[in-house]
């Protein structure tokens, strides 16, 4: 027994009568060898000659955007996709020609710095992804060496055909065919949380032909041939055959173990590698890391294109005027502008070659006017975004202490997008929920028990301003009893054996006994402490068994044919051990919506114990057993409205003859290999599950993460739509929808699925083409009916939700239907997509993003969410219990869903506000500066001579205007964080893009042109034709340029002071610093030798400073330049205020003497109407009560 380990002898195949059945070779297996089914695997022979010819991919996986070979070309392409960078590249090349009005180094150096810094940042971020890949590829697994021994090796070294051994709680390194396990019948338990988000364990079973090979030595001479389907994205299907010992065996999805799923409750398994690396199903569902560009960046490109157009027009007009003037310079031998000596000029000013001179002037003008296009804007934005990301990373309100996880902004490119989110697409398990169920309430014999409160109830209580009358064991510090996972129930009438004093004690006894018996859980006894824990297929089933234990019915042992329970005996007051023989298990599935067990008790009675959904259970009750049916229904509705998952419990006694007939037919159905095997089993179960006696109902909370309903409510108030994309069953997803207040009682549900009799009957025939056509027609019809329902007479008064399953979604996402589906979905208040594969999640996200043209945010926590996160405009990963795959693939990682509220409403709004103000101001100051150069050009017949010296041009964006605008992007706050959360409607400024739309951008561009006009014409007019100094000297280009430069720098810096809302000491200090630097530069640069300072020699000290007209001109021009902006801002704030301006006025308290005005603004800002969230649920309840009271108060006429 080399490495065989301890062998488990308990066979559970009898329990899983539905899951573990025989498979026929008929049907899909006949397609082996055809297109799409061509894969051939030689088990235990990875070096086989045929395997080498097929060249299957290795098991190395890469999720990076770049590699060593592609980093430079791809990264350069990314940088020069930016139109401004491409423009400056062209200008830099032209700067090496004689056309340049400045040196080549000064032109190309800023571009190298900007592009290089951004490429380094991209490289660092991608290296972090590469480190994660290295860690995963180097994980260890055990592979067969060919001599009956298994040796540890890295995942990346696996090849198709290898035999591997995986131990308990390890991940599967590739897609494997299950050969055997520690159980005799070859079963194992698999957790697929990383694939489909489900926490319940899946049962897998090896073929009978290989199940006996449970020791290492068996694989010394093992040989087999697998023929199966080619790699594809479908997680829930697999077709193939195994040729072993000259026998052919069919393979189904039940035999396949998928990469990134985990082995649970099984000591070890042996498997053959079928798919490796990027051929595995999880990687087939993955999408390549995208190069995301924010809408801001795309909008900036459009603005730059617009400025390019203006720049080209300015250069073109200037070249035309220059050409006309140059052509007239030489008229025969007569020289009009004789002082320019046109008869002895270069090609650039030669009147004999006017066309060439005009073209050269045009190219020179394009370089001279490049200050219209701010190259420093991009690098400034990069710096600002790094600071913004650090604020997110260091926000104490986004820090989750239990797991020691702060928020982590993994890429700073998309900060502003956080303030423009229109739709959130969320995973469920691990994102909205905690991956745990808690028994919280129950209804027995028409009486409600349990005082627990749910997150939804707690949220509604906070909204009403009242404390919730309830109990939560996990939050009650006064109780001495430790919190029991899965149990949050308290009621003194039930606990501590007090249920024996209740009027319906016999029914209560049967209720909890049913919970202790009707399940497929396995007890796990700790040998040291004697404590019992349970491993169940689903967390709610574990919660039921725990609830039974805590109320006196402890399930403690299971054999192949029996369960043992320690029960509280009302007669003796002690616990007694009773054994129940398990005869049959009728498992739960989505069509039956119920589960039953048939047992024989110690008295010999045959009992059928059943639990299921209310939609199928009430109709199966015996007519004589409906005494408290109405009370139970009312309780179930109340529980559902509180977001709880409910099940109805009932039983019946069977007579021997009836059971004998049933068991015979049921066994025949189980062993059938016909296409309608499942139907035969369902029919037999249907016949025995009738005439039931009602016991009551359970209410289990699929435990939401703390604060989820409140967060969803606040996001709904902000106008953000919410979609849930989950791999869970439809019933589970709907229950969570109620829990987190996306659904509520009274909301019309539009359910799209393929569970119609027509489709089910076609599936029995196996005609795939007919099934596909009928399924597509059915989905199209259901979508059309849904749209008609919404558009009907009641459409305006009612709220709708859309719920669709994975099969239907596959057809709804086809090209000819997807836009109709999107129209229907966008008309609904909430959308839930169930049974969604990772690929479908990504496709839905792409559809919403491309169809609405608005910003989408995807949030998830598992590997199955990676495609969705990468496809969305912003991907937010939850660093939770499912590992770090989603967090590492995300743009922002947070520890809890509730942190999304602050991330979007506070940081998102601030980042949007900061960057929009910063960019608009950047364009304003560059246009004010650049257009003043053009105006002087026009004044001098477009001589290609700048009014400012080269150093004045270079330092404008470096020393005199750069720091205040950077501080604006880093520190600006229009309102406080508390106000952002108090008035969520403020978030709509970003969604509607009010601060960076074309209207606002044009205002700032116009302000820049106006400032340049005022500065040039007022300065030139004020200083023209008069003595500037006491000795009578007039103004030259140097004095005019110095005066204009002073006015420009003062105007743009004071404009900054007027723009800032959050005027910090840093902001104030930087503005003062820039103005002081102006005069220090004048003095320092003017003191250099004339060969270096040129026209600026002693300019300020001897010309500007002593002249009173200089100071008066500067003051007058600054006032004239800023007055229109001041007047516009005052009028807008008073008569046409935006959201943030309303809040600023409320916070300032300046209008306390005008209460009507303040009330009007509060009404606009507070409690916007929503369709989802507990605010909407509370409003629906209030309206219902009002209508009820109104009807009661109406006079009755006989």
UniProtKB/TrEMBL annotation:
One Pfam family it belongs to: PhoLip_ATPase_C
Protein's name in the database: Phospholipid-transporting ATPase
Keyword Phosphoprotein: no
Active site: 427
Biological-process GO terms, alphabetical: phospholipid translocation; protein localization involved in auxin polar transport
TM segment ranges: 83-101, 107-124, 303-325, 354-372, 922-939, 951-971, 1004-1023, 1043-1063, 1070-1088, 1108-1131
Keyword list, A-Z: ATP-binding, Magnesium, Membrane, Metal-binding, Nucleotide-binding, Translocase, Transmembrane, Transmembrane helix
Main location: membrane
CDD domains, per the entry: P-type_ATPase_APLT_Dnf-like
Organism, as annotated: Salix dunnii
Bilayer topology term: Multi-pass membrane protein
Subcellular location: Membrane
NCBIfam families linked: ATPase-Plipid (TIGR01652), ATPase_P-type (TIGR01494)
Catalytic reaction(s) noted: ATP + H2O + phospholipidSide 1 = ADP + phosphate + phospholipidSide 2
InterPro entries documented for this protein: ATPase_P-typ_cyto_dom_N, ATPase_P-typ_P_site, ATPase_P-typ_TM_dom_sf, ATPase_P-typ_transduc_dom_A_sf, HAD-like_sf, HAD_sf, P-type_ATPase_IV, P-type_ATPase_N
GO molecular function, one term: magnesium ion binding
Recorded coiled-coil stretches: none
E.C. number: 7.6.2.1
EC main group: translocase
Binding site for Mg(2+): 427, 429, 861, 865
N-terminal signal peptide: none
Family from the record: Belongs to the cation transport ATPase (P-type) (TC 3.A.3) family. Type IV subfamily.
């Amino acid at each position: 027994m080399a490495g065989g380990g301890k062998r488990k002898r308990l066979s559970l195949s009898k329990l899983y009568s539905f899951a573990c059945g025989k498979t026929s070779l008929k049907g899909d297996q006949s397609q082996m060898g055809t297109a799409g089914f061509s894969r051939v695997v030689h088990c235990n022979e990875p070096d086989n000659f045929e395997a080498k010819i097929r060249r299957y991919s290795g098991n190395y996986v890469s999720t990076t955007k770049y590699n060593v070979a592609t980093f430079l070309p791809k990264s350069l392409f990314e940088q020069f996709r930016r139109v401004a960078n491409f423009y400056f590249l062209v200008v830099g090349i032209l700067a090496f020609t004689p056309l340049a009005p400045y040196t080549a180094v000064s032109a190309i150096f800023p571009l190298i710095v900007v592009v290089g810094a951004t490429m380094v940042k991209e490289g660092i971020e991608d290296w972090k992804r590469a480190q994660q890949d290295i860690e995963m590829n180097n994980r260890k697994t055990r592979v067969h060496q060919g001599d009956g021994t298994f040796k540890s090796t890295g995942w990346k070294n696996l090849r198709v055909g290898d035999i591997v051994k995986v131990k308990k709680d390890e991940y599967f390194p590739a897609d494997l065919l299950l050969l055997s396990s520690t159980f005799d019948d070859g079963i194992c338990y698999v957790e697929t949380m990383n694939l489909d988000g489900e926490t319940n364990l899946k049962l897998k079973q090896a073929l009978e032909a290989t199940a006996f090979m449970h020791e290492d030595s068996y694989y010394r001479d093992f040989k087999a041939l697998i023929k199966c389907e080619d790699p594809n994205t479908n997680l829930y299907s697999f077709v193939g055959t195994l040729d072993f010992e000259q026998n052919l065996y069919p393979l189904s999805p039940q035999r396949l173990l998928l990469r990134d799923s985990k082995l649970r409750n099984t000591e070890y398994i042996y498997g053959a590698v079928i798919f490796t690396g990027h051929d595995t199903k999880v990687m087939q569902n993955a999408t390549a890391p995208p190069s995301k560009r924010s809408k801001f960046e795309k909008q900036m490109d459009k603005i730059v294109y617009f400025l390019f157009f203006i720049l080209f027009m300015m250069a073109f007009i200037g070249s035309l005027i220059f050409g006309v003037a140059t052509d007239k310079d030489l008229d025969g031998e007569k020289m009009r502008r004789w002082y320019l000596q046109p008869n002895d000029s270069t090609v650039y000013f030669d009147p004999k070659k006017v066309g060439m001179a005009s073209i050269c002037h045009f190219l020179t003008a394009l370089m001279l006017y490049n200050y219209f296009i701010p190259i420093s804007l991009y690098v400034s934005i990069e710096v600002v975004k790094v600071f913004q990301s650090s604020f997110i990373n260091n926000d104490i309100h986004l820090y989750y202490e239990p797991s020691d996880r702060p928020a982590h902004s993994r890429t700073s490119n998309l900060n502003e997008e956080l303030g423009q989110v229109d739709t959130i697409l969320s995973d469920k398990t691990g994102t909205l929920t905690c991956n745990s169920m808690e028994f919280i309430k129950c209804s027995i014999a028409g009486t409600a028990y349990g005082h627990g409160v749910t997150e939804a109830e707690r949220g509604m209580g906070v909204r009403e301003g009242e404390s919730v009358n309830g109990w939560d064991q996990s939050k009650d510090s006064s109780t001495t009893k430790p919190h029991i996972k899965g149990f949050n129930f308290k009621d003194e009438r039930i606990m501590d054996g007090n249920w024996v004093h209740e009027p319906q004690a016999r029914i209560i006894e049967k209720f909890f006994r049913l919970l202790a018996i009707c399940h497929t859980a396995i007890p796990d006894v700790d040998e040291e402490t004697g404590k019992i824990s349970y491993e169940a297929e689903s967390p709610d089933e574990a919660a039921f068994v725990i609830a039974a234990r805590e109320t006196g019915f402890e399930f403690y042992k299971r054999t192949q044919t029996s369960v043992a329970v320690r029960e509280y005996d009302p007669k003796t007051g002690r616990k007694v051990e009773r054994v129940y023989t398990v005869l049959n298990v009728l498992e739960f599935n989505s069509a039956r919506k119920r589960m039953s067990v048939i047992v024989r008790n110690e008295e010999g009675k045959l009992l059928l114990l059943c639990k299921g959904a209310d939609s199928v259970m009430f109709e199966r009750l015996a007519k004589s057993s409906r005494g408290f049916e109405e009370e139970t229904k009312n309780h179930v509705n109340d529980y559902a409205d509180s977001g709880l998952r409910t099940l109805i419990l009932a039983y019946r006694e069977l007579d021997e003859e009836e059971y004998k007939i049933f068991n015979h037919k049921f066994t025949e159905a189980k062993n059938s290999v016909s296409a309608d095997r499942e139907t035969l089993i369902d029919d037999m179960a249907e016949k025995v599950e009738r005439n039931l006696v009602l016991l009551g109902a359970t209410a289990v909370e699929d435990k939401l993460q703390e604060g989820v309903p409140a967060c969803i409510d606040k996001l709904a108030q902000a106008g953000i739509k919410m979609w849930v994309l989950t791999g869970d069953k439809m019933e589970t997803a709907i229950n969570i929808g109620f829990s987190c207040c996306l659904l509520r009682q009274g909301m019309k549900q539009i359910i799209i699925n393929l569970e119609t009799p027509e489709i089910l009957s076609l599936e029995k025939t196996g005609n795939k083409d007919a099934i596909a056509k009928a399924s597509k027609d059915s989905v199209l019809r259901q979508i059309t009916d849904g749209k008609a329902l919404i558009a009907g007479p009641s459409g305006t008064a009612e709220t709708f939700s859309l719920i669709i399953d994975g099969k239907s979604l596959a057809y709804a996402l086809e090209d000819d239907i997807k836009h109709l589906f999107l129209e229907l979905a966008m008309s609904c208040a909430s959308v839930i997509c169930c049974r969604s594969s990772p690929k479908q999640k990504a496709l839905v996200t792409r559809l919403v993003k491309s169809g609405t043209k608005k910003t989408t945010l995807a949030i998830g926590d598992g590997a199955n969410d990676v495609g969705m996160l990468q496809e969305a405009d912003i991907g937010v990963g939850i660093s939770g219990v499912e590992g770090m795959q989603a967090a590492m693939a995300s743009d922002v990682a947070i520890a809890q869903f509730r942190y999304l509220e602050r991330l979007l409403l506070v940081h998102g709004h601030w980042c949007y506000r900061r960057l929009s103000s910063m960019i608009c101001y950047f364009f304003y100051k560059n246009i004010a500066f650049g257009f003043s150069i053009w105006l002087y050009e026009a004044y001098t017949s477009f001589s290609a001579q700048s009014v400012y010296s080269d150093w004045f041009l270079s330092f404008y964006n470096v020393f005199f205007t750069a720091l205040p605008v950077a501080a604006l992007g880093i520190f600006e706050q229009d309102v406080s964080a508390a106000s952002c959360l108090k008035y969520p409607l403020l978030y709509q400024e970003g969604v509607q893009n009010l601060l960076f739309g074309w209207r606002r951008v044009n205002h700032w561009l116009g302000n820049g042109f106006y400032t340049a006009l005022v500065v040039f014409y007022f300065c030139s007019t004020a200083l023209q034709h008069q003595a500037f100094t006491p000795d009578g000297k007039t103004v030259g280009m140097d004095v005019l340029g110095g005066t204009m430069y002073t006015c420009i720098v003062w105007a743009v810096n004071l404009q900054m002071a007027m723009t800032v809302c959050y005027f910090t000491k840093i902001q104030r200090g930087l503005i003062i610093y820039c103005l002081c630097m102006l005069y220090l530069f004048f003095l320092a640069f003017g003191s250099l030798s004339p060969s270096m300072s040129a026209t600026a020699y002693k300019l300020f000290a001897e010309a500007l400073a002593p002249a009173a007209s200089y100071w008066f001109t500067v003051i007058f021009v600054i006032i004239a330049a800023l007055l229109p902006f001041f007047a516009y801002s005052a009028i807008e704030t008073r008569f046409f205020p935006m959201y943030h301006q309303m809040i600023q006025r409320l916070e300032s308290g300046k209008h306390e003497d005008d209460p009507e005005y303040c009330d009007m603004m509060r009404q606009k800002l507070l409690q916007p109407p929503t369709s989802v969230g507990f605010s909407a649920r509370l409003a629906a309840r209030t309206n219902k009560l009002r209508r009820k009271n109104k009807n009661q108060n109406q006079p009755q006429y006989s």
